[in-house]
Predict the 3D structure of the following.
Amino acid sequence: MPGPARGREDGLVVLRTLPRIDRLELAELALPEWHPRAADGSCAVLGYVVHHPDGPVVFDTGVGHGNELIDDLYHPTVHDLVDRLAEVGVDERDVVAIVCSHLHFDHCGQNAALAAPVHVQAAERVVAAEPGFTIPEWATLPDERWRVVDGDTELADGLRLVATPGHTPGHQSVVVAGGADVVVLGGQCTYTAAEFASGTVAEADVHEPSWHPTALDSLHRLRALRPTRALFSHDRTEWAPAD
Ligand SMILES: [Zn+2]
């Protein structure tokens, strides 16, 4: 059994041992030529599951199925979230919470496949209602499933939601703290681990150009937590401190 949690001087609650965190390969997108990352050719869509002592917590649910617009634009290869969870020993009925980094189509597409409450920032619900922001049916749920938070929130011991606006107005990250480790699930706070390392955010990855300073500020707030690892939505490379 995990021992008692302890508090850090900056208020972060740290579990005695770090919960296991598994990466979920949720989709692969072909990037159209107008896309800012078109030179990469394709884009991995990654989610994560944190095996928290209170129950599994899923971070992002990937791309949904069967949307004509998304199929035409990105020719996605979509993997079932439920199958991916089963591969790492999680029955989807046991998931206690979903956290959406943001509500773009490739981060919330399979929310409806699970029954757990979905934690999202208030600002993200607002922007997700704007035309063209997302695929509305993937970003829509019965009211009782939403858990709308505003700013940083302790979801459980060792599990903090950190508001990291920039890529979208209500983007959030998750910080998992246990033992000597502080793991950032950064979502799309940066697109790559290399950007996280250098403290930069690509201009093309922010909501609008005016959000770039906000995105940089969010990144600096995450780095100030002295993480020991950081994991991302679209880059399989993990970040670790240089020493
Ligand atoms: Zn996005």
Summary: Residues 102, 104, 167, 188 surround zinc ion (CB under 6 Å).
